[in-house]
Amino acid sequence: MSKKSILQALILSALLACVAPQPAFAEIYWFTDSEGVMHFSNVPTDKRYIPFAGPNRAVDDKTGAGRSARRAGSPAKARYEAAIKAIADAYALESALIHAIVSTESAYDALAVSKKGAAGLMQLMPETAQRYGVTDRLDPVQNLHGGARYLRDLLRMFNGNLSLALAGYNAGENSVVRHGYQIPPYAETRTYVPKVLELYHQYRKSTRIAQTKRES
Fold first, then answer.
1. Which is catalytic among the residues 27, 105, 173, 198?
2. Residue 180 region, left (φ>0) first, then alpha (ψ -120 to 50), else beta?
3. Cα separation of 105 and 59, whole Å?
4. Are 119 and 137 in contact (CB under 8 A)?
5. How many CB atoms lie within 10 A of CB 77?
6. Which CATH code, of 3.40.50.10800, 1.10.530.10, 3.30.750.24, 3.80.10.10, is assigned to 3-205?
7. pTM, whole model, 2 decimals?
8. Over the stretch 76-126, which tens digit does the pLDDT of each residue have?
9. Which of 63, 160, 181, 196 counts the most CB atoms within 10 A of its CB?
10. Is 105 part of the annotated catalytic residue set?
């Protein structure tokens, strides 16, 4: 993962910390430029700016995951902790990133199926599952392997640009390419990316705190 992507996640978290308590949160706008740099402003002078979706907004209604992800308690997350850690290590990914995607996509419901046909923990579409050899999308381990491999390939395709990789995961890599290697202008995708980044940073922070406690 590139230093720029990590820096963007940190900047996003700082923005959330500054504006989350304010009732005028919806007046913050953002966009990602052609270099993959994220821009934020309360004065949308560029036509690419869109309203920034804050931490209390649902990602979408495909399984209710946007709403239920916030209610997914530690038991649901803990159930797949070991599997996600092992699979993340196998594909040189951060487990916090996989947790962020699973939380957003399915709220750790291995049997979740969307209206569009995506299924399982990482909400794999049939074509994606077939591409990565997943024969049972509702099998948690198979689903995690397929989703992690897809995410790894997206990060490689977009040179470590996490925002574009997440946009590709949500809308498809071809959609990102068609829109000039920028986040596609779809409301769901432009809500999805910052939501996952927010959770990713939260999980990374929790992981560091847990490691510090174990070492002390």
1. 105
2. left
3. 9
4. yes
5. 17
6. 1.10.530.10
7. 0.68
8. 888 999 999 999 999 999 999 999 999 999 999 999 999 999 999 999 999
9. 196
10. yes
